[in-house]
# Entry
Amino acid sequence: MVGMTLVDIRDHIESLASEDGEYYVLCGRTGERPVPAAGERFADRATARSAARATEQYRTALRRYDPQLPFYDLIVCQDTGPLTDVAGSRRDRNSDGGTPLDRADGRSAGTARRRLVEFSHRVAGAVFETLSDAGHDAVERAVMDAYFDLAETTPDSDDLCLCLLESMATELDRRLPPSEQAELLSAAAARLPSPESRERPVSAVLASLAECGLLDGHGQSTATADSGDGLGPVVLWLSEYALSPQDGRLPVLPIVLELRRHRPDRDPVSVRAAAVDDGWQLTLRRAGESESDGFASAPIGSVE
# Structure
């Protein structure tokens, strides 16, 4: 065991990786390269085997939160040429015949699908670990109960990882007061790797969420979103957001968590949401400016 947390294991695998390595890890049965070793190369076979063992450990840890996580028969292969993405399929969650995941930047559906699954599990894992450390056992059980119910009616594993984020945001909103939500999300963000740069944090967050397939298009109101004077109020526009409204509220947990990761030294951000023709309008404010705004889940109102 190289570490008990998902971040520890991922960091270990990344420390083993080599940009010009000839070895990589994949499933001998399906040909897929599983998270978190997907896309990594290793200098020799022994190092790649260590990465394969760590990948098994990582996925075993994830399976505590997501029993539906696929099992892979991991092997080490050698390839002196560029790795080829293994395409995959994903059930459409939108009505227009495609998802931001499938369309983004011309990438294969398989690559985009893995990025969304990886991102969802990283967010969920960080929040679960924080709930456990903080002693919020009742909240943790409620999230898992909701997730198990969804697992019985959601056949697609990729949709299920999004359902996990939706149910997690809903239960946090129902069971923790705003101040505790803000504290918990700050602690969860600290478990994730620090961004390479904290310049223009809001722009960086929107770009990273689009890159992982959580949304497609995006925009923001003014340059004040990335100013050094604090945040807000700032208006954002999102199109093809992958999470769906729940009981009149929009799950924004991954957005707030990413903002916290990029702005750990600033005030927490709360959010209000409004439906617009091509997606969602989000209004971000420093916490405390409006008691009705949300952290894990945002109230849906009219356009401001």
DSSP finds nine helices and eight strands in the chain. The longest helix spans residues 109-134. Residues 49 and 76 are 6 Å apart (CA to CA). The chain has a mean pLDDT of 80.
